[in-house]
Write a structure and sequence with these properties.
Layout lengths: L1 H37 L6 H18 L1 H18 L2 H7 L4 H42 L6 E4 L2 E8 L2 E10 L5 E11 L4 E13 L2 E11 L6 H4 L1 E9 L4 H7 L11 H11 L4 H11 L1 H16 L8 H27 L5 H23 L3
Helix pairs in contact: 1-2, 1-3, 1-5, 2-5, 3-10, 3-11, 5-10, 9-12, 10-11, 10-12, 11-12
Length: about 375
């Protein structure tokens, strides 16, 4: 047990060192990218540093499998160079038992990242998206989904319009049981429209079975209300703005995702992307375990045996291949071409089985 703790402690230390190295690389690169993208919007060095700091947790969380496999390679290569790995094998421990400590540590690390780091990433991603939207449009988001239905906001300097709908189409451009409340520049309501259906067109909403109340110009809005079978009302929204307002699933904490998916379903939107993301996140600890086993499979041989560079390169290529396969399966799942559970769980499980087979063949065969 002492040996297992020793290996696990060294593995965690290497994970920390590799993470710090990537932090030193990512921050200046992201800073230059933020300044390049937002230079025309008046962003300065301070704004770029703030945006890079907000984007850093998500970047590190995304490359966590790469950090883990590099740490595994560094661990076993160092154990091999110091002949500690030879002593471990001479003591009767198999290659799988030697890899068990870092694999279990990676599993616990992935679980801790899911429970602690994921909400932090969600918070920083939300703040990052809000900052970016503020630079580009001056507003944070035009759409939100709640238990009461779908809420949108549109307008300009002359006033704002708040829109609520019981449900919407998959892309949010067709609203059902919609209510439009227009406000002037001082925030006073000037008009209310209830429509059975509202479809977004170029610069306007096409309304069906609409009833309009003149709130700002009438002393009796109900008396002066008018009912129209077909009507229109101006809109400053575009399909792209509504689509981008959904944000990315990573901006929602893992514990809130099931409830958010239920709200999407109730509002009429497709929650498939968020379902695939949820299952992929739940499978992430297994993916980290697979990265450890892949790294161990190609780096547990003695350094004196030669071909160390080839084995390290093979481990990295296989690790990148598994990472690409997971992302590809995730895309297929989001498009509905693969079942959600298969798209999320098959790549890490297959990677674990493959790496165990390689270890058994190369080391214990």
């Amino acid at each position: 047990m002492t040996l297992q703790y020793y290996i696990a402690r060294r593995f965690l230390w290497l994970v920390l060192i590799v993470s710090l190295v990537f932090t030193g690389l990512l921050v200046p690169i992201d800073l230059m990218e933020q300044l390049r993208r937002l230079s025309d919007d008046g962003a300065g060095i301070g704004d770029g540093l703030r945006l890079a700091a907000l984007n850093l947790p998500a970047a590190l969380y995304q490359i966590l499998p790469l950090i883990v496999i590099l740490s595994t390679l560094a661990l076993f290569l160092s154990l091999s160079r110091s002949s500690e790995l030879v002593v471990i094998r001479a003591a009767g421990r198999s290659a799988l038992r030697a890899a068990a400590a870092p694999a279990a540590t990676a599993l616990l690390l992935g679980t801790a990242a899911l429970a602690i780091v994921n909400p932090i990433v969600a918070a920083t991603q939300t703040a990052y998206e809000r900052e970016i939207a503020g630079f580009r449009t001056g507003i944070s988001s035009v759409l939100s989904v709640s238990e009461e239905g779908v809420w949108l906001r549109q307008g300009d300097g002359a006033g704002q319009t708040v829109i609520r709908a019981g449900r919407a189409s998959l892309d949010g451009t067709v609203l059902f049981e919609a209510t439009f409340i227009a406000f002037d520049a001082e925030g006073s309501p000037v008009e209310r429209i209830d429509a059975e259906r509202a479809a977004l067109s170029d610069g306007e909403w096409l309304l069906r079975n609409a009833k309009t109340w003149p709130l700002g110009t009438s002393d009796n809005p109900e008396r002066d209300a008018r009912v129209e079978l077909q009507a229109t009302t101006p809109s400053s929204l575009t399909r792209a703005q509504i689509r981008d307002s959904f944000g990315v699933p990573s901006s929602i904490p893992i514990f809130q995702l099931p409830g958010f998916i239920a709200q999407l379903d109730a509002a009429g939107f497709s929650g498939l992307t968020h379902r695939v993301w949820l299952q992929t996140e739940l499978a992430n600890p297994l993916m980290l375990t697979a990265m450890v086993l892949i790294g161990a499979a190609f780096s547990m041989r003695q350094v004196r045996a030669g071909r160390t560079g080839v084995m390290v390169l093979s481990a990295l290529l296989l690790g990148f291949g598994i990472f690409f396969l997971r992302n590809f399966a995730q895309v297929l799942g989001e498009n509905g071409q693969l079942p959600v559970m298969l798209a999320a769980w098959a790549p890490p499980v297959a990677a674990i089985l493959l790496s165990v087979g390689i270890i058994l063949f190369l080391e214990d065969g």
